[in-house]
Amino acid sequence: MLKTTPFHPRTAPLVRAQTWRRWAGYQVASSYEPHPDREYAAVRNGAALFDVSPLHKYMISGPDAERLLDRMVTRDVTKCRVGQVLYTPWCDASGKIIDDGTISRLEEMRFRLTAAEPNLRWLTMNAVGLDVTIEDVSERTAALALQGPLSRAVLEQVSPADLAALRYFRLVETTIRKIPVTISRTGYTGDLGYELWVDATRALDLWDALSDAGAAYGITPAGIWALDLARIEAGLVMLDVDYHSAHHALIEAQKSSPFELGLGWTVPATKPGPYNGRQALRSERESPRAWAFVGLEVSWESFEALHLDRGLPPHLPVIAWRVSQPVYRNGAQVGYASSGCWSPLLKRYIALAHLEASNSDPGTAVTMEVTVEHRRCQARAVVRSLPFFDPERKRA
Amino acid sequence: MTTSRYDAILIGGGHNGLVAAAYLARAGRKVLVLEKRPVLGGAAVTEEIFPGFKFSVFSYVVSLLRPEIIRDLDLPRHGLQILPLESTVTPLENGDYLGSWADPDENRRELCRHSPRDAEAMSQFGRLMQHMAMAVKPILGMMPPDPTSLAPSDLAGMLKLGNHFRSLGPDRFHALFKLMTMSSADYLDEWYEFDPLKATKSASGIIGTFLGPRSPGSAYVLLHHYMGEIDGAFRAWGFQKGGTGAISEAIAGAARGHGAEIRTDAGVAQVVVRSGRVTGVALENGDEIEAPMVISGLDPRRTLLQLVEEKELPGDVVDAVKRFKFRGSSGKVNLALDGLPDLHCLPGAGPHLKGAISISPSLDYLERAYDDAKYGEFSRHPYMDVVIPSMIDPGMAPPGKHVMSIFVQYAPYNLNGGWNNDRREAFGDAVVNTLARYMPNLKDRILYRQVLTPADIERITGLSEGNIFQGELALHQLFFLRPVPAWAKYRTPIRGYWQCGAGTHPGGGIMGASGHLAARAILGER
Q1: What is the CATH number of the domain that holds A334?
Q2: pLDDT tier for residue B525 given thresholds of 50, 70 and 90
Q3: Given B106, B229, B241, which is nearest A34 (Cβ)?
Q4: In chain B, what is the straight-line distance between the N-terminal and C-terminal CA atoms, in Å?
Q5: Is the pLDDT of residue B526 over 50?
């Protein structure tokens, strides 16, 4: 039996088509309406409300909390100030990614780490000899993501916090209609948006407060299908879809370094303290890399022609696919796409792909395998740099 | 010949003019667009008629905009953002309703309440119409060949067309021929039995035309509205973020990005013609601007009878344009609302208010609405297509408030006694009173009301007789006959003078195809 999140009593009656899916052992909505169109539209033109409670959450506190996290992740946690949030991957000793998530510095000696997978054992192993307390608060803390251009306007109705002053990747501890919450200006959509962290016992109150205040702004509960479209447009990777944890990979080829996932920016050239994977990443920085993580834009003309050849109108992936699709150049396979969708906003067929670095420059013409009426075909595509969509309002 | 700053002047900043300008500029031409109003878009404009409330004043939804134009001009980068408009609810006279939902299962179940037989016919009908839309799609993208001409390009075009029709196979060809000739009521009778369903579907066949659902030719207009595709799905309608004016602005942004110059408040008084060739335009303010090419995005009457003198054209062309049928038949009522109205048949807020509400309870209702118009009166109980844009795009109205767009048919341009303020308000009253039968609290919610008759549409946008398609979509005014035989390929008898409005093939709706095809014809020419 899958677990339900603290918001389940509110979300369950809204899932009209019973389109549930599993996420980290929880039952969450793929979409609330039978089709995710309006939920996606809310992300890009209104305010979409996602239940992201299944994220793994750890509270790390004590004199050595900073040291533990700095030792574990690639980014320099010593530079993270109170009220700041860092996005970071963390690697094994060979510099291959185990997981990625955010670190919120709530106090000088108290951090919250989010992760896609359970990391308690890894945290504990890294904490040997350190004066630090690690708590798995996953079940105690409920989380919502309020994402979209009107998300700030909604929060301003219910919170005394100065949200206009809250910068990208900063957080504030405040209240929403007297409910204590942490609001961080973070998200997984590449848009203006916030994540709200609340004690699970107050989860329903928070949901009700937002639903009530958001009604005039068209607040829309949204599920994973809508989230998936948005995060592909934003070029954000997903564990177990676009990469696999070094802890679960069965073969070396299934592992990725941050550089190979387009996350080179999370590996500082100079970071004073030692951290997992440092040696390997340092030498990888110097040497040419084998793989690059890029965007692909599938040519409409080519995609349409493949369908018209069979007498069909083009069948677009309006729900993102997550199955590896081979990518070719001049007849030879040069990589694979790991997720893709029709972007309702950009009106383009986009995908995220791993390509041999030598074939990954933006503008490179490749082909991607598509299946049209039971037949494998090659659709023309062009390499694009990521993200596909990056509006000013995200940071403004 | 003097050298001018511009290669081409576009008259009219409507969406087709802007599309043509963008393509010409993209091909490196120096282009100037002249718009008489302070706002771009023609009939695709967003205006804040009442403070804080934004209205797509005239054209209000989008489906037909050609996907290749969206791609070629990269319109999403310039602000095109189409939001889903998924459902239609038809309130019935017995207090029930007929819903048409996006989800096929929900839709079938809903129709089953009224007619299990129709519920089964629905998917077959949808498939046929999808085939029909695919069948006409290539025609939308082709310059209409003249079947009477022996010119190689016309012969090649006819051959292409012939091959295309042959590829359809007999069943689809027959269906297409029926669609081109039948009335929408008769056509739908072949499929359905539930009258409100037929009425609601046939409404697409009367929009913008002076036809009733039982008039032959209305089935083609039905098809015209099925040709729209959003993301590859035919018969999909959407709402542009910020209203239809934002579509015009997106196209204008693309045109400017390619170097086009666009001026507003720059009405053209006359196209200057010397020795059968254009040399430029004269503005209403007296300025003259030279260019070797002038392209009019206005309708055929304005383009060929008003901007140039009749003596510059062959007599038969003048005659044909004079006979070109406009006969505007629709009006628009825009409301600013203090809150959401309740539907009598479906009280409360819900997803149905994010879709269309169709006042089309029966075929007789629509035909009676037409009867009024036939004899020169506006419909006492009109057909209405109602949308609440602020439910789809919260930015259209202040938080908690709403805007309502009501497309109304029929309101004949040639009203008995003519349109005046009293008659306009009487028309507005008929609309609100009729709608209030289905939305009992509507009147209490109204903060502001804008009523637009065909005469107003003509006065504000310039569309002759207020026809929203720049001329009726009747068989005798389509394809190689649009706007007049022998001059359907965007040229005019005056050298250097071109037309690119919806009065040319394929015309009608925010489609952009006329502007695109005109630009292609012009670029191929040079």
Answers
A1: 2.40.30.110
A2: low
A3: B106
A4: 17
A5: no
From chain B, the residues in CB contact with A313 under 8 A are 130, 134, 229, 232, 234
The answer to whether A14 faces chain B, any CB pair under 8 Å, is: no
Share of chain A above pLDDT 70, in %: 100
Chain mean pLDDT for chain A: 96
**For residues A251-277, average pLDDT:** 95
Signed CA dihedral, A158, A163, A168, A171: sign only = negative
Which residues in chain A touch residue B80, judged by CB atoms under 8 angstroms apart? 347
Q: Angle at Cα B505 formed by Cα B503 and Cα B507, nearest 5°?
A: 55
3-state secondary structure of B88: strand
Asked if B338 has any chain A CB less than 8 Å from its own CB, the reply is: no
Kindly state the average pLDDT of the residues A278-286: 93
Cα(B492)–Cα(B508) distance, rounded to whole angstroms?
20
Which candidate, A112, A81, A96, A154, places its Cα nearest to that of A279?
Answer: A96
Burial A5-32 (b: 16+ CB within 10 A, else e): bbbbebbeeebeeebbeebbebbbbbbb
Residue B112 pLDDT more than 80? yes
> How many separate domains does chain A show?
2
If you classify domain B8-44+65-82+242-325+463-525 with CATH, what class do you get?
alpha beta
pLDDT at residue B130, rounded to an integer: 84
Kindly state whether residue A265 falls inside one of the protein's structural domains: no
The angle subtended at Cα B353 by Cα B100 and Cα A18, nearest 5°, is: 65
Cβ distance of B231 and A34 shorter than 8 Å: no
CATH code, A8: 3.30.1360.120
For B222, phi then psi, to 5°, come to: -55, -50
Domain boundaries, chain B: 8-44+65-82+242-325+463-525, 124-236, 330-410+416-452
Residue A300: its chain B contacts at CB < 8 A? 67, 71
The secondary structure of B468-503, three-state, reads CCCCCCCHHHCHHHCCCCCCCCCECCCECEEECCCC
Distance of alpha carbon A41 from alpha carbon A233, whole angstroms: 13
- Do the domain assignments include residue A241? no
Chains A–B, number of C-beta pairs less than 8 Å apart: 69
Closest Cα partner for A243 from A224, A263, A228?
A: A263
Taking an 8 Å cut-off on Cβ atoms, the answer to whether A17 and B82 are in contact is no
- pLDDT tens per residue, range A157-179: 999 999 999 999 999 999 999 99
Residue A301 and residue A380 in one domain = yes
Domain-located, residue A216 = yes
A contacts of B76 (beta carbons < 8 Å)? 345-348
Residue that wins the pLDDT comparison between B130 and B4:
B130
Residue A151 lies in a domain: yes
Q: In sequence order, what are the residues at sequence separation of 6 or more whose Cβ sits closer than 8 angstroms to the Cβ of residue A204? A: A6, A7, A9, A10
CA distance B103 to chain A (A): 6
User: Could you say which of A33, A215, A347 has the minimum Cβ distance to residue B70?
Assistant: A347
Q: Which residues of B touch A316 (CB under 8 A)?
A: 231-232
Task: Render pLDDT for B315-352 as a digit per residue (tens, 0 to 9).
Answer: 999 999 999 999 999 999 999 999 999 999 999 988 89
* Closest by Cβ to A314, choosing from B232, B241, B351: B232
Domain boundaries, position A144: 3-55+139-222
Using alpha carbons only, give the angle B484, B490, B492 rounded to the nearest 5 degrees.
65
Instruction: Tell me the pLDDT of chain B averaged across its residues.
Output: 93
Q: Which of A62-76, A186-200, B115-129 has the lowest mean pLDDT?
A: B115-129
A344 touches B: beta carbon within 8 Å? yes
Q: Using CB atoms, which residue from A37, A45, A300 is nearest to B81?
A: A45
Residue of A nearest to B398 (CA): A216
Is pLDDT at B227 greater than 80 in this prediction?
A: no
Chain A hits for B391, CB-CB cut-off 8 Å, are 218
Gap between the terminal Cα atoms of chain A: 43
Predicted pLDDT at A147: 98
